[in-house]
């Protein structure tokens, strides 16, 4: 069952990834072993050559560009020149590399999200603090407005009281002046009359 699954996966992957061309340049090219299987490495271009070991799926290798009998020459991670079937060599990274890259991106995104969440929380705390300060300032302004209205009312009453006081003082002075104006002439008239009598 595992062999059948491995063959199906290798068939799908071989259709998904283009095979290396027979006339590839002789300089080294990065390649990858297809996913979901391991393959044997041979000392020559064919399964009749000695097996030098196996190579795991997703392993990054160097492709020399030499192709024979549907086998490609590669340089493995131990820097050995070996041959593997061409259908298992792909120029694109396998799922292992893609998943690792996606996991790294996910970790970075999660880290960025956490950082942004912390910044958002700090911003919300600042907004709450400013809202409370605004509410306190509004209460202080309301109290100051009440005090201002009360002070204006007191000033208006005080002004009215001062005007009343001046009015009463003026009336008293007027009355005193009238009284004196009426009494003094009579007193002087009496004195004249009494002085005339003495003569």
What can you see in these coordinates?
There is one protein chain. The chain has 199 residues and is α+β, with helices and mostly antiparallel strands. It folds into two domains: 2-93, SH3 type barrels (Roll), CATH 2.30.30; 94-163. It is 60% helix and 18% strand. It contains two helices and seven strands; from the N terminus they run αβββββββα. It has helices at 2-16, 95-198; strands at 29-33, 39-42, 51-55, 60-68, 71-75, 81-85, 89-90. It has a five-stranded antiparallel sheet, with no helix packed on it. Strands 2-3 form a two-stranded antiparallel ribbon. A hairpin with a 5-residue loop joins strand 5 (71-75) and strand 6 (81-85).
First-last Cα distance: 167 Å
CATH topological fold name of the largest domain: SH3 type barrels
- Which homologous superfamily in CATH is the superfamily of the largest domain? SH3 Domains
* Helical content band: 55-70%
| CATH hierarchy: architecture of the largest domain | Roll
């Amino acid at each position: 069952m595992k062999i059948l699954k491995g063959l199906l996966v290798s068939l799908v992957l071989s259709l998904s990834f283009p095979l290396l061309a027979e006339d590839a340049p002789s300089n080294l090219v990065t390649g990858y072993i297809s996913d979901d299987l391991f393959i044997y490495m041979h000392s020559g271009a064919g399964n009749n050559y000695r097996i030098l070991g196996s190579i795991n799926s997703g392993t990054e290798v160097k492709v020399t560009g030499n192709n024979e009998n549907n086998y490609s020459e590669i340089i493995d991670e131990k820097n050995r020149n070996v041959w593997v079937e061409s259908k298992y060599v792909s120029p694109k990274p396998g799922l292992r590399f893609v998943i690792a890259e996606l996991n790294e991106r996910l970790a970075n995104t999660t880290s960025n999200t956490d950082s942004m969440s912390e910044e958002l929380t700090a911003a919300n705390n600042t907004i709450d603090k400013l809202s409370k300060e605004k509410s306190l300032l509004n209460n202080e302004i309301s109290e100051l407005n009440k005090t201002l209205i009360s002070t204006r009312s007191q000033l208006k009453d005080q002004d009215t009281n001062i005007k009343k006081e001046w009015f009463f003082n003026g009336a008293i002075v007027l009355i005193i002046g009238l009284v004196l104006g009426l009494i003094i002439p009579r007193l002087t008239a009496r004195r004249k009359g009494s002085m005339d009598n003495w003569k």
